[in-house]
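Sample pair:
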Amino acid sequence: MQSRITSIPIARSNGIRVNDASRDESQGVPEMHKDEHIIIIAPVGQDAVAMADLLHAEGFETQICQRLDECSREISDKAGALLLTEEALESVQGSLLFDVLRAQPTWSELPLIILTSGDESRRAGLLDLAAAAAGTVTLLERPISTRTLTRSVQVALRSRRRQYQVRDLVTQLANLNETLEHRVRERTAELSAANRKLENEISQRKGLEGQILEISDREQQRIGQELHDGLCQHLAAVAFMTRGVVLRLKNHRVFEVEDLEKISQLVNEAVIDARNLARGLHRLDVDSAGFLPALRDLVSREIWKTPCRLKVKTKLTLNDDSVASHLYRLIREAVINAHKHAQAKEIVVEIRQSNSEIIFSVTDDGIGIPAGINNFHGLGFQIMEYRARSMGARLQVESLKQRGTRISCYLPQSDKTGIPAKSVL
């Protein structure tokens, strides 16, 4: 901290000399700001009162401090400058004043104006003593004129105002840093959450890829089994009976017409099996007009081991081909799952209306969902749930109280729910 000595021409007398002419030459009452009190410490005589009256007459806010321990807070918080006599520094409480000055925040260097009447060596000693605790020190030799005192106070206050500006900038900077750190923490938390979500999605995708491969293997095994047990058996029987007819013809023997009819029957059955198998492997996209016929064809297939029937309890007209396709594939997946896992005696596909929703449900009377087992995270269920969301519907899976499972898709009517028009019922 640097010390500044302001040299001012002085007029020697035994006190503070009030010069009216000098007062008239002053620049008027200065504009005062908050926290610009002039703290006056002058323990000897009436110096404190005289200086307070003089400064008050010039428009300054003053406060006389009788005891340093009582004024330490005012000196730290409210003082614009500290005006004191050399006797205050030499008093018993001078060390307390220096402690208060040393405890100032980094932005603060409270200006000190010290009135002295000692010789050069004494002034130098006071200056060294004050400079150790304060950064801005002004020594005025008594007696002094009013103009000298007021100008010194004005200079001190200007210095103090600059310090307050620094304080405000430091506070703003601290607030900005805090805001920035808060935003950085928020952004870091968001990025961490996004990263965890991405990691979960990657892990889930890897799991789904494994399930897809497993399903593909099972489907290949199922297709191979169906080909072997169904179509291949029919074709083998056709080949065997045809070979018998060929041998009879070759030996000019008589063959029965029933044999040719049986061969024709077996070929027709083989064609039906192949057609059913092909329809199970690939179904052209179902459009709005073909939705109900496709459902009727689905439930009437002979490949199902469990009887399946369709119940339509409401008039249904779909205007969106995408919705019709999603609905068909969702219901088909539910029917296939019921045939594979439910061990049911009957499967019912039902279409009905409830309030503002059309409910498409697949119900079986099988074993239901075992307690404590969550089967809702498999690939099939996730695909069904995706299809329901794609058309603005919701999917519900429930285990019935008595026996069986019901999978329901609730499709809202757009004119009542505000969902984009995908279905008009």
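The radius of gyration is 50 Å.
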